[in-house]
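Researcher: Let's walk through a ligand-bound prediction step by step. First, I give you the protein sequence. Second, the SMILES string for guanosine-5'-diphosphate. Third, you return the three-dimensional complex as structure tokens. Ready?
Model: Ready.
Researcher: Here are steps one and two:
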Amino acid sequence: MERMNVVIVGHVDHGKSTFTGRLLADTGSLPEGKLDQVKAWCAINSRPFEYAFLLDALKDEQAQGVTIDAARCFFKSDKRHYIIIDAPGHIEFLKNMITGAARAEAAILLIDAHEGVQENSRRHGYMLSMLGIKQVAVLINKMDLANFDETVFNRIKEEYSQFLTSVGVKPSAWVPVCARDGDNLISPSERMPWYTGLDVLAVMDAFHKELPAENLPFRLPVQDVYKFTAQDDDRRIVAGTIVSGTINEGDEVIFLPSEKRSKIAKIEGFNVDPRSSIGTDMATGFTLTTQIFVKPGEMMCKTGAANSHIGTQFKANIFWLGKNPLVLGKKYKLKLGSARVQMVVKEIINVLNAAELSSEHKPEVGRHEVAEVVFQTQKPIAFDTADGHPLTSRFVIVDGYEIAGGGIVVENRSNRSGYTARLEFDSDWQMTSIDAVKRAQRAGHSAAIAIVFGAHANELSKAIETSLFEEKIAAYRIGATSPLQWERLVEMAYILADSGQVVIAAISGTSHDVVAVSDPLSRFPIVPIDSDHCTPAQAIEAIRTRI
Amino acid sequence: MNHLDRLEAQSVYIFREAYRDFKQLGMLWSIGKDSTVLLWLARKAFFGHVPFPLIHIDTSYKIPEMIAYRNEKALEWNLNLIVGQNTEALANKQTYPDGAIDRIACCRALKADALKHTLDGTWPRLRMNHETRQLETDTNPTAFTGVIVGARADEEGSRSKERYFSPRNQDHDWDVADQPPEFWNQYKTDFAPGTHVRIHPLLDWTELNIWEYIDRENIPIIDTYFAKPGGNQRYRSLGCFPCTTPVESPSRTVKEIIEELRSGKFANIAERSGRAQDKEDGGGLETLRREGYM
Ligand SMILES: Nc1nc2c(ncn2[C@@H]2O[C@H](COP(=O)(O)OP(=O)(O)O)[C@@H](O)[C@H]2O)c(=O)[nH]1
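Model: Step three, the predicted complex:
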């Protein structure tokens, strides 16, 4: 039988636990004797019986009298098994509400008919939208306190649906209920004959299972690359979970941001029948036809398809949960897909106060606020934007040791793809105070970067350095044999060129690879030199015309 | 993709996250059905390998078949097995079976304390030597920073609040009221020195799922879970023999157990009802759990 996770959200005391407890009781889903046990406990402690007590599995929760965490309970209808996540409504526990809601495929939002729309009714509605939960039903609860009056129901429905529309949530149903007495939960209420819609159980059964993202372009965040040598295993396996799409043996793939390419040799597995194709949500692994160095954190896409963006700057909508506010310039860790990278906040565009729904300009984002910000990452990463591919646009922000916020990328703001020099990133890093023109006047030449590639890059670059040095030109040669070192090479070249020197950078790649290295250095004149077709004299000549 | 594929994929993902981020990673292995499924899932995640040690806390009151099964599989599957024990409490006869303390205190001494000191490397522990095929003193007892555990949310109340990645402080305490948020498959993998993280790949599995998966994958399971031919008794949950009683059940195969769970008499009886310590006081387990007992 099918299973579905449904989260119950809403403002504190609007009846989430009562609703859940009553639903479990009315559908006969409680363990034998549980109801009597709780009733007896209430009698002994001379407290009125509450369905909410059924859910209070933990001691300290009973003592405090509020749901602090998303507790799970199980029940089944004729159609499917439900896992009910009872999310806390108290603002202090927003992160628990998010944890509960993020696991759900659908949500039930409760509003107290007597109190009407409250701060967390709005905040939770907003969070559901951010978390990407599309199936939502709204219950107007405690209708007994509103004399089961249709006009009260309609008034709240109108007010709240306006808000939900503004954040992009479209409820599938609005149901007036009295959770405590079970009205409209699993059968129509005699006390509200004016309501002709479905009861809550029927509304839940009408939720549909979310379809896996099979039709979106292929994405697999590379979680790890394994090479276990035990028992003579010589496989090198690229492992991860397929977020969307399908892949077959023989398909050509590209890894981002490194832009390395290869082909799927074999879909690997343990204790499964061999297969030539594998799809969305499967945790799997592949061997490739060529030996390329891929790092955990890269995004595997298919060549020729719509691929992820590569960049170092993006605009995002975020929610903040941290004890300390999110501030400009401070370093945070970004976790997006399998990528982990340091980043800073470049700009806080605006901060939305969920309680009043007003937006304002502020230098920081406080706890439980939502905001629009621009981030700058230390290294390029692959990501998607929410309108293109929502699943790989999502990220979390780590402050110190804690996950302190989450968000979705809405726009790529990077001014170039490929590497961006780390130096531009470090806001506390001090650069020279002498103007480049003055430097050039003193030295008699300006800076440039010669990128020497091909099979003879080593010998040729050494020859160039010696000749330039003899000609009294400030020249310095660096070289990297592995693409893994290119990032460092770029950084060093940047510094050396910034100091006014002529940099001769030898790489072991082809003309294709020159782009990857030169792109972030485009501030300086770039002289590509093909060591297979170029003499030292020709190279010197090419450099001389640029300095 | 059916529900078992889905559960498997989620667990494998969690295993790989843990392996990537925790340098000192270990996994508890109680020999029971849950932790044996856990072990199988590790082999799924790492393509037949188990690239971290398995830790077994031996109370000395385990059913002898369990120890035999443990040693056999450790050798057969090339497992890095570590065994810890509260040797002092056992030597001084400070246990429940010796009549010295009550059940909860006994669990605390033989399981919680033994676990704590085995994990942080402060008590001597044993390691399987695959050459001599013997357990020998572990000469390099490092502290674990990540510990994989087979807890399931449906087992009992306190476990339904666990996270997939659940931090424990220096004293191994679990702060239920202040847990990290978990969403979009991103977990708490950064932690302060001295603290460690419990990792729960089986959190979303039910008892029925466990048996369905054992059936599908044909996982070898210790046979104390099955009734003997003609018998009417079997264990549903394995603990120490002085505190675990068998249940009345004639089920002799995995399929029969699944049938019994789906429709039969266990549908409304808690799995751990054969564990005496659960009944001793209302919040006993939760208290112990905070202190580190699984
Ligand atoms: N009159 C009335 N009270 C209700 C109803 N549902 C819940 N309550 C009461 O509202 C209070 C808060 O309910 P609870 O379920 O704990 O709210 P939660 O904080 O959203 O989980 C409790 O005292 C319930 O008895 C209802 O339908 N009618």
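Researcher: And what stands out?
Model: Chain B touches chain A through 54 residues (CB under 8 Å). Chain B has a mean pLDDT of 86.
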